[in-house]
Write a structure and sequence with these properties.
Strand order of the largest sheet: 7-3-10-9-8
Number of domains: 3
CATH topology of the largest domain: Beta-Lactamase
Largest sheet: 5 strands, antiparallel
Radius of gyration: 26 Å
Strand content: 15-25%
Number of strands: 10
Shape: elongated
CATH class of the largest domain: Alpha Beta
Number of helices: 12
CATH architecture of the largest domain: 2-Layer Sandwich
Length: 343
Amino acid sequence: MNLNPRAQLLLKALVDIYITDGQPVGSKTLAQTSGLDVSSATIRNVMSQLDKQGLVQAPHTSAGRIPTEQGYRIFIDSLMEMQPLTTDLLGMMNAELNANQSTDNLINTASTLLSDFTKMAGIVTIPKRSQLKLRQIEFLPLPGKRILAILVINEKEVENRVIQADREYTQSELQTVSNIVNSQYAGKDIFSIRTSLVETLHQASTRLDQQMRVAASIADKALQQDDKNSNYVMQGASNLLNFSELEETGKLQQMFQVFNNTRDMLNILDRCINAEGVKVYVGRESGVEGLGSCSLITAPYMADGEVLGVLGVVGPTRMNYKNVIPVVEITAKLLGQALKSES
């Protein structure tokens, strides 16, 4: 949309003021803050044109104006001046997102940082198991035909899983299983291991392959993906209770219903995972009715050239985009670097 310089300056000023104050902006306020040497009447004429173009609207007959979704979009794409992060903030984020912790801790830390620094909801998808490498696996016998599988993933993360077997196994048998699996699959990503195990189970049909069949069967059960591997972590959702524009009847309830519906949230985040850099959804642009009063800012995080997941911030459309976008962008880079170092 083509806007003359005066209209651009006034739209930018209006959005900046509304983001700060949360109140409709009148022509008198714009005259005082825009730096333009024009009358209030001239500003009212410009506002009227912006209103006709769908960039601003008056929530009440006698009130000033507020940005529309389209107004925010032009502001974000063309008018906004990004606010770089301070050296102190960067240092704090670097210290928190260090590689000397497990993947789960890194994901939770990233979500918490996004929430704390923006005062909104921080969300981070958990890396899929196909993107995590198995370093070692050990098996121990348990009563009731059960087996304890101890997995070391990416050298630092340890997981214990109890699996149900078809019979009792001795420690000697399970040590043989561990040796077979570790010798063939250590260092490979879990998705490729499971694919190979399935193929092995189809091929190991003779008595000569019996040990391999047992090893493949037990390892396959131990490496089966669970629900959390396609899930996400969200911190700070309660921060959204502090924004008065979300208090209108039903808005908060609809928003939290979306948060509690894993499928809806993952559908949105999956659309962002292949984006190049930061992606911003304003209001209804997300396509989810319950987030019509919110904006979502996301960025993929990656290691070794591979996208591992996506993170972002959910907040009201009246969020401070010029501050939030750099936080999301830097958090994604730091998380990717920490996961790369960890692996």
